[in-house]
Description:
five-stranded antiparallel β-sheet, three-stranded antiparallel β-sheet, 13% strand, elongated
Amino acid sequence: MTGDVNTSRLLGLDALRDALLTTWRDVQGVAGEYGPNALLAAGLTLLYALLFVGVSRVAFALLGRLIHVDVHPIARRVLRTVLRLTFALLVLLSITALFEPLSVWSAAIFRVYLLLLVLYVGWGVIVRFLHVQADHWELDASLSVLLYNAVRTVWVLLGVYLVSAQFGINLLPILGGLGVVGLAVGFAAQDILANLISGVTLLLDRPFRIGDWIRTQDHEGQVTRLTLRTTRIRTRDNEHVSIPNKDVAGAVVENLSKGGTLRVSVKVGLSYRDDVAQARAALLPVLGNFPGVLPDPAPQVLVEELEESRVRLLLRFWVDAQGVAGYPVTRMGVLEAAREALTAAGLEVPYPQMRVQLGPPGEEAGPRAGG
């Protein structure tokens, strides 16, 4: 005869019930001890929020009356940040005062508040200094962004280190561990690092600037942005292309805008039967009157090469910096106008020809003389 089996104990239901009861009693004890203070902290937080909204409206209204309109957005941003930090300080100090275990952090929280204010004001001074120096050294937009981001990263890391130090947290061992992890990640992301280093090289070497028209091995367009990873250009077809920086840094890059004006060449064929001087006289007025072609330097019509079936003329002219964006259209227009001018002057634009002679070399075509 077997005894009765305790199913609840066998399945562990009794242990689970005891754990839940113990947890519930602990929650009741914590709620009984800290519940009133938690409700008071919530009420104070709501009161501070209402006070923050009211003080903000009054302060912004006074600011609009006292501050000049040019600096008004900056002053509003500074005032909003200071009010938010003060609101956070009041909430945190109230919570630490109501809960005995957290009271030891009150002094550290107040020091962090003052430290954040100093960091915020200091960052404003640094940004102003960077803008002044960028204007003084005439840095382009990409280099200014690189300098701004680098200084901001250092400033944020300094702020994190100082704030953590107020709570007795030493970040140096953590940073050492992150350095080892970063080394491993670096081996796994060699392409990204190569583009990053190439981006810094392009920003420092500055073969082109934002707004320049450049030509690489596969693309031609206007530089719209230069990041630490890619060079972004807008082609003449309004296509936006992102090129990895390592491909740009390792390739031949032609800057069409660097010199200001740009020389454009157009090739035109002329028959051997026609006079080159007459063709030049017909083509120079076309270049001189064509929209977008600069009168100085003066356009030229030169003989570039004597080909098998034609004389190849070279029309050379210059366009200004604004004309670089549309010089292919100008080139095509000049080519069309040149053909019309040569036709109007009675000159022939020949097509490629090939003479084929049948028979032994030296034998002339036609009937032989004699009987």
